[in-house]
Design a protein that fits this description.
Layout (H helix, E strand, L loop, with lengths): L2 E7 L3 H12 L1 H8 L2 E8 L16 E2 L2 H6 L5 E4 L6 H11 L3 E4 L2 H18 L3 E2 L10 H8 L5 E7 L2 H13 L3 H10 L8 H4 L2 H15 L9 E2 L7 H9 L2 E12 L2 E12 L11 E8 L3 E8 L3 H20 L28 E2 L1 E8 L4 H11 L4 E6 L7 E8 L2 E2 H12 L9 E5 L8
Parallel strand pairs: 1-2, 1-4, 2-3, 4-5, 5-6, 8-10, 10-18
Antiparallel strand pairs: 7-9, 7-11, 9-10, 11-12, 13-17, 14-16, 14-18, 15-16
């Protein structure tokens, strides 16, 4: 039986998972491919640590270039992460005529154009299923399963750390800082959680989804990105009262020839399937003009779910090799000549409903002053809640608006925040009412 040799660079958590999958599922993989996938080399700086999985003698080495330069290795798996040395390894592997599999969302969202163009020019395959949503096959679905569709919208919960924090705040209560600390203790959040809670990781993944869905190379700076640090337990409670849940959403929408590309906390109806996605789970809701709405749900990170996606890419490439073909699919699913720039809709031109929270003095006329400023900025009020009255003291005043222009909304909030009746910086959260409906 034919053997296809692969080499792994990066023997960390995901790399260990890939070795486990290749070993434990070797028989079923062989039956599905019609060839044996042989892990010939594994490169990592640390060759002494016990990962709980046994490699044959001589397989584990500390020289990544020895993997890339090995003429018997056909597929190189990059799992070192980052955007510097990982890029060098991938480009070197492509130059050596190797197919590549990677889980590196930061790299692909910043240097994907260079990498994908090189792979296409060389007639080589590059698999990156694990770069977005872990074990959920969203990349393959956009490249193949939904290829007949114009994509109207994508809404994604694609960062497990942020979703865990917001879910815990929603279900169990507690302050952001306290829930974050518990997430760190459980290993769901990094010591420095910035990439997760500030929306950066989500933006990296959204960039990849947009590139696939719309046949473009979007720049990260074109994606409006906002994190969840300012969301408090009181916002969670008020959201519940209004029938919403707060989620950190990745949003892409095609609207009148322009593309909305944004990451931010969002209030969504509690009845929508995305509102029920809790803990470290991920979900991606896609609407295509032919298929309608579909949703993908599962574990978005972790050793084995991510390893499952990496190994699936290896299998796809091995199947192509066995048939003597490669580059059957363009990296973005669009042929290179069809890849184009898209016009990005500026965040200031967004027009949706908003949730506003002010800590205002409780005295006659306070609400009318706030409403007057909103009216002057063409913002109409849908609902108002003022609880725990404390005459002469500070109380939370919560307002829901009808559709409002973000530029006007920001201007109004800034003006209100300077008034002597306001005690702290106002908070606003965007509301998405009709997720996945036709535009």
């Amino acid at each position: 039986m034919q053997k296809i040799n692969v080499g792994l660079i990066g023997f960390g958590t995901v790399g260990t998972g890939v070795v486990k999958v290749l070993k434990e599922n070797a028989a079923v993989i062989k039956d599905r491919v019609g060839a044996e996938i042989c892990l010939k080399r594994v490169a990592d700086k640390d060759t002494a640590r016990d990962r709980g999985v046994k490699l044959d003698d001589g397989v584990l080495i500390d020289d990544a270039m020895a993997v890339i330069n090995d003429p018997e290795i056909s597929i190189v798996i990059e799992l070192v992460g980052g955007t510097t040395i990982a890029k060098d390894f991938i480009l070197a592997a492509l130059d050596k005529g190797k197919h590549v599999v990677t889980a590196n969302k930061a790299l692909l969202s910043t240097h994907g154009e260079e990498i994908f163009k090189k792979a296409s020019a060389k007639g080589l395959d590059i698999g990156f299923e694990a770069s977005v949503a872990g074990g959920i096959p969203i990349i393959k679905s956009l490249r193949e399963g939904l290829a007949a569709n114009k994509i109207d919208s994508i809404y994604g919960i694609i960062n497990g750390t942020a979703n865990y924090i917001l879910s815990k705040m929603t279900n169990d209560g507690g302050k952001f800082e306290d829930v974050l600390r518990r997430a760190q203790e459980k290993g769901y959040a990094e010591t420095d959680p910035s990439y997760d809670v500030d929306g950066i990781d989500t933006a990296h993944k959204l960039a990849i989804l947009i590139n696939l869905a719309y046949g473009t190379y979007i720049k990260l700076e074109d994606i409006y990105t906002e994190g969840i640090r300012h969301i408090s337990s009181i916002d969670i409670k008020f959201a519940k009262e209004f029938g919403y849940r707060i989620k950190l959403l990745a949003i892409a929408k095609s609207v009148e020839g322009k593309l909305e590309a944004r990451v931010h906390p969002t209030m969504i109806p509690a009845t929508h399937p995305l509102a029920t996605v809790d803990g470290v789970f991920n979900a991606v809701h896609v609407r295509g003009n032919a298929v309608g709405s579909v949703m993908f749900y599962g574990l978005g990170a972790g050793m084995m779910p991510t390893a499952s996606a990496v190994t699936a890419d290896i299998i796809d490439i091995a199947r192509n090799m066995k048939k003597g073909i490669s580059s059957r699919l363009s990296p973005l699913s669009y042929v290179e000549d069809a890849v184009k720039d898209v016009r990005i809709k500026a965040i200031d031109t967004l027009e949706i409903p908003y949730y506003l929270r002010f800590l205002a003095i409780d005295k006659p006329g306070a609400l009318s002053k706030i409403a007057g400023v909103l009216g002057a900025h063409n913002i109409s009020i849908s609902s108002v809640i003022q609880k725990d009255r404390k005459v002469g003291g500070a109380v939370p005043l919560v307002i829901l608006t009808h559709n409002a222009l973000e530029k006007e909304l920001r201007g109004a909030v800034e003006e209100i925040g300077k008034m002597d009746i306001i005690f702290e910086k106002p908070v606003f959260v965007r509301i998405e009412e009709n997720l996945g409906t036709a535009n």
